[in-house]
What we know:
Layout: H1 2-8, E1 15-16, H2 22-33, E2 44-49, H3 52-59, E3 82-89, H4 99-113, E4 117-121, H5 126-133, E5 140-151, E6 155-159, E7 169-170, E8 176-180, H6 183-186
Parallel strand pairs: 6-8
Antiparallel strand pairs: 1-5, 2-3, 3-5, 4-5, 7-8
Helix pairs in contact: 2-4
Amino acid sequence: MLKDLVAKNRSYRRFYEEAISAETLKELIALARITPSGANVQALKYRLVYTPEENAQVFRTLRWAGALPDWDGPEEGERPSAYIVILCDQSLGKNKQIDDGIVAQTIMLGAVEQGLGGCILGNVRREELAQALGINLEQFTIELVLALGKPKETVVLTELPKSGDTRYYRDSKQIHYVPKRALEDLIVG
């Protein structure tokens, strides 16, 4: 059921470092390929990363959890097994609208369906990443990086506290909690 996939699609930041094949990543891009695109321009392209060497290069360019300032990201042995770098091909036009969000969510839902999880990262040192992966920044902009792997952590959705604080947090057992607003608080009128 879609609701179950959406509920399981959390921002996982620690993984079992089990290899993810290029074929699995291509299956996820096949889902992205058939999503809607603003003006049907289809300007998004994808750089697949799944070797230990390239994974290490990508990892160094990422910032992981703004609400956890004392945590620098997953430790060795808990890092993503693969990444998908979402690019916008400027030769096809800059009018990509919200395509990057649509494809990122679609890819993540596909990953969950395959027993994987991930984290959508926008806090990226783009020039450093482009240099590491040989991405031509005159042709492409780096939109998002999707970190993928088999989740090694538990993420729990909780009610928003009375304070209204939406920041996620971890307890002493490293269980990750994500406060969510109540349904009636989201509907206007």
